[in-house]
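As the next step, I selected for study a record pairing a protein sequence with its backbone structure tokens, which the following lines show:
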Amino acid sequence: MCGFLEAANYMQLASLLHKFRYIYIPLSVAALKVVDATTTSSDRATHPVPPPPAASSSHGEDFAKVVVVRHGETAGNALRIIQGQMDIELNETGRQQAVMVARRLANEAKPAAVYSSDLKRVAYTAQTIATACNVSNLVLNPALRERHMGDLHGLTFDDAVRSKPDAYKAFTSEDRSQEIPGGGESLDQLSDRCVSYLNTIASKHKGERVIVVTHGASIEELCRHADPTSSVRMRIPNTSICVFHISSTTGHWILKKFGDVAHLKKVSFPKTAFN
């Protein structure tokens, strides 16, 4: 079957959309460029805690260790729906994945803070991790949201090709400055937003370890920033782990670990998951 789903599948999709209450949270590209995770009015902290402590020079390290985690699976991932900045909760598999990655991270060095996109699928994953790691400093910030997908929001990839060909062409364009019709972001805009925010986090946590929970396309851009020579299409599985060393002094990024899913031994995840 090519293109459009059969009527039965449309009914299933409509039921899932209603069940999981897809909500689109509009946010302009300009508003996304938040640079202060702990003091801006756009932040939503889950606990009334003070800002993270200033970087400690006693660690003797010039960089922050930033552990970046993708959110768990959603129904949209399983159905290959372009979610972008639509707000949807994890499905049962995603919740299991969140528990498993949280258990793994709880057995590693305790992070100074956990940062997260404010969308539900990421916030739930981040809260699960923060609880397991006994970290009260959890900061939700829209700067870590997925790419704004414009007119493609809510469509399957197959339907997007037929019903929104111009938007889909922009989405698949190799021109990194190409914005997606309907208010969508370009890859350059996505990269600038996410990289800027991680640099801000790194400057606050020099010599410390922090966890950042975000989305697939956002992580791809972070990896490309660390290794701009890579031309390989990156696959970012749900709750996979990437580790960056980021120097706020030199601005240098090193990708130390990529796409690690060693914790997912008993939970399946879609190979083609996106967003």
